[in-house]
Structures are given as structure tokens and as C-alpha cells.
Amino acid sequence: MFQQPLPMEITRLTPEETATRLKEARCRLGDELMILGHHYQRDEIIRWADFRGDSLKLSQLAAEHPEARYIVFCGVHFMAESADVLTTPEQVVILPNMSAGCSMADMANIRQVEACWTDLAKATDTSRIIPITYVNSTAAIKAFVGRNGGACCTSSNARKVIEWALERGDKLMFLPDQHLGRNTCTEIGLDPEKDMLLWNPNLPFGGTTPKEIQQRKVILWKGHCSVHARFTVEQITEARQNYPGIQIIVHPECELDVVRAADLNGSTEYIIKVISQAPRGTQWGVGTEVNLVNRLAQEMPDKTIFCLDPVVCPCSTMYRIHPHYLLWVLESLVEGRVVNQVSVKPDIARDAKLALERMLKL
Ligand code: SF4
Questions:
Q1: Domain stop point among 155, 190, 225
Q2: What's the confidence (pLDDT) of residue 312?
């Protein structure tokens, strides 16, 4: 996505000057403005958020507040797209920095997915394959899934959606995160070796064969999250050695071995809930994005909480939402100009909404 350069005057502001002007702009926009902050955003952004949460929760909140004309989504591009799909046509969704994408969502583009579907049709009846996409995907992928009888899922409800899909079809295709797909299918009793295969969009016929497609139940797309792929079993072993009695909790975007070696796994909302409700004095090694983990550690000084990855691992694309960008979009609105609007084409939005609504109904 193209991001125009910020006015030089804004880039020269100190953090204090930026905060003063942000406060003023926010005040002037009043109830017409809603700022949403994803859990993985840095603290200097989160402090301005009216709501913080995971991507779906934030989009739903925007839809529940039609009085908010301007939704400034401090997250990444696919999140702003979902918010646009779920909100009314009168609401304007804005992403402060257009270059804030998601490496995982970028691993499945619509041309690759349509080519894959055509290849699958050479081996099996695609009307019996139910496509499922993690919400961390482009609106075009969600629309493809909606058109083909599938649904979206989040890391909280992936199990429910996968079970629903397997009741409706003979096979499922899971996009774009192989790990969430593999972890969840393993949890419901499928065998990663015998029941699943990996579709590599960069290889002829996905690097697989018609026979394998006919034999396996689950087609996993070869995508991953570059943040969660950094967590390893060795980090967990080391944390257990250094902190006897520690509990390990990881996100299901981590690899299967990591999830198996952890005590608990679940979505960011689940991680926050479990650690918040844990007794004082407990110790937690956490396998998810470091901004969230550090915030939990600050908010709960009575517990030991740290990120399992010793080399700090922020989501680099989330990090592109700097306070200067937030200030630029807010001051533009004050001046009556909408910049960085994220708008999904009506036909794509209609089909993507189908996929989102099927999930929400479950
Ligand atoms: S943490 Fe991973 S999945 Fe989430 S936005 Fe960043 S790259 Fe994408």
C-alpha cells in the first residue's frame, strides 16, 4: 500500500508536542471519532485508544457505534478492511499508516488462491471442500471464502468453525495460517501427517499430488505469522529451567511443537484473561507479541510475566503506526479532509460479509 510522506513539520514534533496536539484534535472531533487500538500496538498509541482489543472485537465495536463517523483503526490493513465491511456506509474507516500490512495476510493473495482452487478441481470435487480463512486475511480472500460456502474464524473460535466445516463437507481448506489450522485440527483429533497436507502456492500443484489431495481431509495454506514463528521449544525449556513452577502460555499461531510444549494456548484475549485471573506471585512465560506482554507485566507487577523470545519481537508492521501518523490523520479530519480511508469494493464487501456473518452465527 502506498503511504504518502508526512508533512515535515509533523515529523519534527517531540513526543510531548505530539501528545498536546493529539489531545486537542481528539477533543475537537468529539463523538464523531472513535480510535481503536489493537493489543499489539505500542503504548504511545494505546493511550489514545477508546477501545483496545483483538481485530474482530474492535471491528464489532465500530459496528455497534454507528454514531462514530470516523473510525481510526490503529492496527494493520486487513483489520481496517474488516471494520469497513462490518460498519455502515456512512462510517469512514481510516488506517493511520497505509504501509501497515500483515506479513501473514500477504502470504495468500487472491490470484494464488483462485489458481489453487482450479488445481484442486482437477483432483476432487471442490463443492465438497469448505474453505475457512483466519480473519487475518485480505477482504478478497474473505470474499472468496464467502462465495464458496465457507466462513472466517478467529484464534478464539477456530475449533468451532473447523468442526462446522467438517460437518458440511468432506474436506476443508484453511487459509492463510498453516499453524492455527494444524494446531486446531490436531486438537480435534486429526493427525498432522495422515490427515493434513501443506499447499505451497509457489510450487506447481502446491507441491502435492492429486492422490494426496484425495486422501487428506485438510489442506493447509503455507502461510505463517513472522512474529509467532519465532517462538521455539528451546525457549520454553530454558524458561522452565530458570523459573521452576513457571507456566507457559502461547498463541496458536506458534508451531505445533511449541504449542505442545506449552501448558496453555489461546488467542490474545484468552492470554490476557488467564494471566489477569491468575493468583498473585505466579510466573508466566508468554509466546506472543512483545508489546502486549510488556503491557501485561506493567499492569500486573505482582506476577512475573515475560516474553519467551529474548530478542524483542514486536510486530514490525503494527509498529508502523507511529503517533505522528495518528496526529496527521486526526488533524486532517479537523481540517475537513479524509486521508488514508480504507474502503472495500461493494461486491467484495458483500461476499466477505457472508463469511464473517457465518462465523458470527456459530
Ligand atoms: S502479529 Fe503476525 S498475524 Fe498479527 S499483524 Fe503482525 S504479522 Fe500479522
A1: 225
A2: 64
